[in-house]
Amino acid sequence: MTNSASVWPATATMPRYDAIAADRRTGVLVVGGGMVGLTTALELQLAGADVLLVEADRIGSRTSGHTTGKVTSQHGAIYAQLADRHGLEAARQYGMANQAGVERVASLIDQFGIDCEFTRAPAFVYATEGTDLRREAEVAAELGLPAHSADSAELGLPVKATEVVRFDNQVHLHPSRYLAGLAAAFTAAGGTIFEHTRVTEIEDGIEASTERGPIIRADHAVMATLLPIGTLGGYFARTRPQQSHGIALRLPVPAPAGMTISADGPTRSTRPWPGGGPNGLIIVGSGHEVGDQTDTDAAYRSLSDWAGSLWNERLEPDYRWSAHDYSTPDQLPYVGKAPGSPVLVATGMHKWGLSNGTVAAGILRDLILQRDNEFHLLYDAGRIGDAHSVATLVKDNLKVGKEFAAGHLRRLAGGGLDHVEVGQGGLYDLDGTTVGAYCDRDGRLHTVVPVCTHLGCPLRWNQGDATWDCNCHGSRFNPDGTVLDGPTTTPLATPDTAER
Ligand SMILES: Cc1cc2nc3c(=O)[nH]c(=O)nc-3n(C[C@H](O)[C@H](O)[C@H](O)COP(=O)(O)OP(=O)(O)OC[C@H]3O[C@@H](n4cnc5c(N)ncnc54)[C@H](O)[C@@H]3O)c2cc1C
Ligand code: FES
What we know:
Elements: H1 7-10, E1 24-31, H2 35-46, E2 51-54, E3 70-71, H3 79-86, H4 88-112, E4 119-127, H5 134-142, E5 147-150, E6 163-172, H6 175-188, E7 192-194, E8 199-203, E9 207-210, E10 215-223, E11 240-250, E12 259-262, E13 268-272, E14 280-289, H7 296-311, E15 319-327, E16 334-337, E17 344-347, H8 353-368, H9 387-409, E18 425-430, E19 433-439, E20 445-448, E21 460-462, E22 467-469, E23 476-477, E24 483-485
Parallel strand pairs: 1-2, 1-10, 2-7, 4-12, 10-17
Antiparallel strand pairs: 3-6, 4-6, 5-6, 8-9, 9-10, 11-14, 11-15, 12-13, 13-14, 16-17, 18-19, 19-20, 21-22, 22-23, 23-24
Helix pairs in contact: 2-6, 2-8, 3-4, 3-5, 4-8
Bound molecules: flavin-adenine dinucleotide and FE2/S2 (inorganic) cluster.
Residues 31-37, 54-57, 61-64, 66-70, 198-199, 224-226, 229, 244, 246, 284, 323-325, 349, 351-355, 357, 486, 489 line the site of flavin-adenine dinucleotide.
């Protein structure tokens, strides 16, 4: 029986923290307890700042607890693209920044004795359908990265790879145990964490309102919420939410020891799963924009089918999960001061936020402490980008506009509420009004107004994950309407219906 949960939080003992109960004053407020927030909070506290971190749910409960757990400067076949787009010097800085991120993670683990299955391993990117990786190998090596062309036998995957690039001495780890270790180190250094404390608004001042009522006043604030909440800095319109699916399974043979990712679509990213024994393997892929695919059961199946076809056996995953991250039009994260606000942000990690997020934490620490940081300009949060970026933004926002308009017109319900089957959800009719409904395994009916509370886009039902997803900017909601992921901070409205 497959467990519909990320393997990482399910196999970690996460520390617990109280919710905020009274107004607070602090030097630095960090909003969000994922990779970016916890690393930033720790870096600042270690540098002598007075830091308070608030997390809407539990620390590490969202994207950072749902990753593949690769900490690497090998981000698919990115370096040739970065060099073509931004020049060799920018590509070099990106590579150096992420190599430094890998080594910073290693040194924090060492310094604080974090028990998180830290393992050094090679990271491979391979082509099976003609993508030319020779230039990727050349550019990466020229930039000073530990990269070279490799033989397909080194992959350990039974795929017909035409080209392979190998990055040596990279890292995979148990992300939740790593985050638990960061949190313990942060509080031991004098930092404060409040869980179950959602920030609903942040005013220049800096004054943050929380859903529970108390207000937090700070000299500096860092918004580490995957995407800044509300409309802060306009990042909702400068990024796209990319969702991926993950499974943890046991192969009939020992799993490949290295980390692999395909350069050709559909993306398949693998790494060993030590918790599953020598045959344990994590596979992540089947990506799409949040809300673009509603039959997400098929996305999960495609991952286990892929493994089944490679190892000639029907394979049932132990765990399955999904999460999303934001992409930017120029492939570089936004880290620094948000335009028109004193708040600092870090977003748009392109699904490589374990290394990029560690780099971001160093930049944010140095900005607050008014120190130089060699990577700050590359990740500049205020940049508009080149003509290609602007064209991409225009196209993305046209898509959002169409989703907004067409989505409201297409709201056709699938029958009355008595048609909702156990375990099923979708749009239904309630007295002539279209509502969102889901019947849970205990037969309880949950109904919501299926309109996103961020900027009003129509929501789509995600059957594989049992969530309401917004294709416009990536907000996601539980069946009862509570917020799973921002940028929204407000639960869904519920129509007045009786439970059965
Ligand atoms: C499927 C998948 C696999 C990935 N694999 C890898 C990988 O192998 N290697 C890699 O480098 N990167 C990977 N990534 C990317 C990486 O996981 C992310 O870039 C990174 O985790 C982002 O960290 P974060 O701290 O910004 O976000 P999160 O981990 O989402 O943390 C943000 C936190 O803010 C909280 N929050 C939100 N709103 C509020 C609010 N209003 N008030 C208070 N708190 C709030 C949330 O609850 C959450 O805990 C992957 C991404 C995905 C989707
Ligand atoms: S996330 Fe922006 S409208 Fe839904």
